Amino acid sequence: MKLLADENIPLETVELLEESGHDVLSILRKYSGISDHEIIDLSNKEGRLMITFDKDFGFLIFAKGIHPTQGIIYLRDAELTPEKTAQVLIKLLESGNSFDGNMNVVTEHFIRQRKF
């Protein structure tokens, strides 16, 4: 799956996702410091599902109407280690769920999807 990891996703998590076969573009590696709006634009341009710990994307999506077409995974549990974050994401990505057009709020124990 083609993913876009926000700047707050640890490189260790990115590397573990890549090792599991996912195509991951890391903002931290290539575009550090770009705005959230630019991140959504990049996600749409490249057809990538976004992954972030940043709740501000919810405001952009629901209040401003700026949508990442492939969807977004918002990791709500910032206490997870990079390894555990990767495990949660790999399990989720292999679950068969559709993420397109959804804000996917994810913790270690649940997922809540909301269409936008």
What does this structure look like?
By secondary structure, the chain is α/β, with parallel strands linked by helices. It has one domain: Rossmann fold (3-Layer(aba) Sandwich). Helix content is 37%, strand content 22%. The protein has a six-stranded mixed beta sheet with strand order 2-1-3-4-5-6, sandwiched between helices. Strand 4, helix 5 and strand 5 form a beta-alpha-beta unit. The longest helix has 12 residues. The model has no long low-confidence stretch (mean pLDDT 95).
Shape, per Cα inertia axes: globular
**Helical segment tally?**
5
Compute the separation of the termini in Å.
Answer: 21 Å
In round numbers, the mean pLDDT is 95
Structural class: alpha/beta
Task: Report strand %.
Answer: 15-25%
**Side-by-side strand order of the widest sheet:** 2-1-3-4-5-6
Low-confidence stretches: none
- Report the sheet with the most strands, covering strand number, pairing sense and barrel closure: 6 strands, mixed
Q: What string gives the helices and strands in order?
A: EHEHHEHEHEE
| CATH class assignment | Alpha Beta
Taking all Cα atoms into account, the compactness measure Rg is 13 Å
Q: What is the CATH architecture assignment?
A: 3-Layer(aba) Sandwich
